[in-house]
Fold this sequence. Notes:
The chain is an all-alpha fold. It has 2 domains: 1-84, Rna Polymerase Sigma Factor, Chain: A (Orthogonal Bundle); 94-173, Arc Repressor Mutant, subunit A (Orthogonal Bundle). The chain has helices at residues 4-23, 26-42, 51-69, 72-83, 86-89, 98-116, 120-131, 136-143, 147-171. The longest helix has 25 residues, at 147-171. It is globular and about 50 Å long.
Amino acid sequence: MEDPGDIERQFGSELRLFCRRMVYNDAVAEEVVQDVLVAACKTPTAEVTHLRGWLYRVARNRCLDVLRKMKPTERLSAFRSSRVGVGERLLIDPVTTPAAKAVNAERHERVMEGLDTLDDDLRSLIIMRYWHGFSRETLAATLGLSRSGLDYRLVRAISLLRDRLAALDESGA
């Protein structure tokens, strides 16, 4: 496979961002990324057809392993601590009004809360497709799904997310 330094420079920051969104913890996300880079070093080049998709598949599987091993209280605590100051980390246009910034921060928080209510597989699917811009073809290949299977899961994930966001709006949470 390619030089690990090259892989890290090319994909490291986006993998860290993906892993942070999956496991809610910077230190754990960094460990997962390091595991992915080690796996990349150990895997023969012939086994990898699309490097970016392969890296995300390994990262996703490792994140899911980490989440499954977490106790529910640990996971909730990590989620809550990841929400502290979330509005400050948003990339909001600096020329917008303070009110617009507040609304955007609130929307972002709502979406993240709704996203967290999805199961891990659907959450990772949404993150990879809409935050990291994977095409449907690349995402299907990465996850080992048919195109129609991927489309079904995307529709299901979006529908569930929409329902959960509506429920959050109704409850006033």
